[in-house]
Amino acid sequence: MPRRVAIKNHVHEIRLISRRSIAVLVIMIILIALLITRLAYLQLSSHDLYITLSKKNWLDLIPLEPTRGLIYDRNGVLLSENLPVYSLDAIPSKIANFPKTLADIIKVVPLNDNDISQFQKQLKQHRRFDEVTIKLRLNENEVARFAENQYRIPGVFVKARLIRHYPFGDNLTHLLGYVGRISLDELTDIDTSNYSATEYIGKLGIEKYYEDELHGTVGYEQAETDASGEPVRVINQIDPLPGKNLFLTVDTKLQMFAESVLGGHRGAIVVIQPSTGQILALVSKPSYDPNLFVEGISSQDYKALQLSPDRPLYNRAVRGLYPPASTIKPFIAIEGLDSGVIDTAHTIFDPGWYQLPNSTHIFHDWKRHGHGVVNISRAIISSCDVFFFDLAHRLGIQRIDYMLDQFGFGKPTGIDIDEELNGLVPSPAWKLKNRKQGWYPGDTIISGIGQGFMQVTALQLATAVATIANKGVKVTPHLLLAVQEANKSPELQNPSRVPPIKLNNPNNWNIVRQAMEGVIISPYGTGKKHFGKVGPYSVAGKTGTAQVHNIKNYNSNEDHENQENLPEKLRDNSLFMAFAPFDKPQVAIAVIEENDSNAAGIARQILDYFFLGPPPPQREDTNAITPKSQKANENPVDINLDSDETDIDH
User: Fold this and answer.
1) Is the separation of the CB atoms in 493 and 479 below 8 Å?
2) Could you give the CA distance from residue 102 to residue 517 in angstroms, rounded to a whole number?
3) What is the model's pTM?
4) Per residue in 428-442, pLDDT tens?
5) For residues 73 and 80, is the Cβ–Cβ distance under 8 A?
């Protein structure tokens, strides 16, 4: 039977082919549309991104370090400078074997343990393509030797840079502070892009507080590089903006003289202008050389500073906490008078001791047989403890704390360095919280003479006595006098004002101020022996002696009275605060001397220097400015700050 042949359906085949062709065409159109969209995105929307990535194949963006601003005193004396040096740097990404590279370097340039440890520390804090310093200072011979052998040590090179230097060494450390290498903790708090070319940052003092002004703004250099990544030529450059220069309120001659008269004793001195709050001198001794920290102090040297019993790292002027002792009495007196608890006619009899009602405890006066009949003026002049025991008991701790708070005790003064401590004005609430004990009447009694829990700083004491000098007008102590941008004149900074202390009876200022003048000129004034005949300027002040140990640990009260019988660290601290001249105060001063009794004598020498000029030639010329780097004063700055308060009139 013949086989049946199927007849083709041409219409169906045509339709099938047409559908398939249309589907393929649609798919092709979609793919072409996607391709065009992608090309448009790459060529238009992402043009800037990809042109930058393309340039990175042959261009390198190199950050340029800004020049750090300089620091001058009020008279244009350079206190903090930038010295040019050669350093040995490395780019970690270009070093295959670090131990071998260090071994090769040591054959050419000597490295000590501190250089190596600092380098290894910096490696952990930087990216692999950042420049890291191996050795900060190279001499000319080391630069020449390395240049001859550089081809054998890839990834390592010599770089010219500026480093911070403090020409006066340890003389102004505690107010200037210092710069040091940026730590890991600091990297989280700074704008890393602005520090991409900088290894150093302010650590303490003015250098830290005004870091933003001093640092400047990073610049960039667009350089063409070869196959090995080495720059061939510069295509474009954005210059860095240098940091601002700062002019401080400090007078360097006065500062150095104050340090010299404190001698080898531990202590603090603050000299302030009552009318403006400008700090003329801020001394803390002993001190240390800040240049050690710039280059990276060795662990051995740092440990020696930390373990020193004299605590040279401690800024005693703003962090040293001391019982104010009798220097607190004028402030207690102001509250007693202004609250009406006492008046100028009020007197007590001082037999040499004081006893609270219904108590067996005896509080002794510093003068064994007492002062007899005393009023408020006589009590300040002769520093009668019994009068202020009684006054404190009458006032109560709340009113005492209120007045001390008005004068700024127990809180920061607002000075422009970060290290300041609050001090302590104790209260019943404070004692309950911190000592888990109730407040006793005896706590109030000893607060009246600045003992017990009360603690103040030398800066607080100087600021408070300046307020008395101003009859209640308060100023914020500060160190910054003027700021100078590049190629511009210095601009004076306006002092910060705070609300004044207003008394119910303004004449109470005169009563206390005149009594403080009596401390200096009265035959029974506690400051008389240190000042004698003052001369052409008048002074109002107050002495203080703070006990630093319990005399019951020693053989007798005579041992305490004769301080030479005690080990030095157990001798009393001496304090003194003053302002001068009496009628129109130009200066206020606070001196705290640890374990010695000459705070008033030190203040006398400083005031003599301020008003009368340098001491006679037969004395050692301690006031001469002799920086440890003579380059500091080769080009003194000619500064005109257009202010009557700018220069000290000696």
Assistant:
1) no
2) 68
3) 0.83
4) 999 999 999 999 999
5) no
Q: Give the residue-averaged pLDDT of 47-58.
A: 63
Number of domains present in the structure of the chain: 2
Residue 70 maps to a domain: yes
**pLDDT grade, residue 644 (50/70/90)?**
very low
Question: Would the pLDDT of 623 be above 80?
Answer: no
How far is C-alpha 246 from the chain's CA centre?
14
Residue 645's Cβ-count burial label (10 Å; 0-12, 13-18, 19+) is middle
Q: Which tens digits make up the pLDDT trace of 308-329?
A: 999 999 999 999 999 999 999 9
Burial 147-169 (b: 16+ CB within 10 A, else e): eeeeeebeebbbeebebbbbbbb
- The verdict on 375 and 244 lying in the same domain is no
d(Cα 252, Cα 269) in Å, to the nearest integer? 14
Residue 488 and residue 449 share a domain = yes
Backbone angles phi, psi at 76, to 5 degrees: 85, 15
DSSP 119-177: HHHHHHHS-TTS-EEEEEEE-HHHHHHHHHHGGGSTTEEEEEEEEEE-TTGGGSHHHH-
Question: β-pairing, 71-72 with 245-248?
Answer: parallel
Amino acid at 413: T
In a domain, 562, yes or no: yes
| Domain identity same for 221 and 364 | no
369 and 486: one domain?
Answer: yes
Same domain, 470 and 575: yes
- Are residues 219 and 195 in contact, defined by beta-carbon separation less than 8 angstroms? no
Asked if residue 275 and residue 200 are part of one domain, the reply reads no
Q: Which residues constitute the domain of residue 332?
A: 271-279+318-591
Question: Which of 80, 326, 382, 447 is the catalytic position?
Answer: 326
Q: How many CB atoms lie within 10 A of CB 307?
A: 8
If one compares 16 and 76, the residue with the highest pLDDT of the two is 76
Last residue of a domain, one of 571, 591, 611: 591
Least confident of 109-118, 131-140, 551-560, 615-624: 551-560
212 & 345 share domain: no
Neighbours of 347 (CB within 10 A): 15
> In terms of domains, do 225 and 275 share one?
no
CATH number, position 401: 3.40.710.10
What pLDDT is recorded for position 494? 82
In a domain, 623, yes or no: no
Among the ranges given (237-241, 404-408, 601-605), the one the predictor scored with the smallest mean pLDDT: 237-241
The CATH code of the domain that includes 171 is: 3.90.1310.10
Active site residue 298: no
Q: pLDDT digits over 150-208, tens only? A: 888 888 888 888 899 999 999 999 999 999 988 878 888 888 888 888 888 999 999 99
Q: Is residue 164 part of a domain?
A: yes
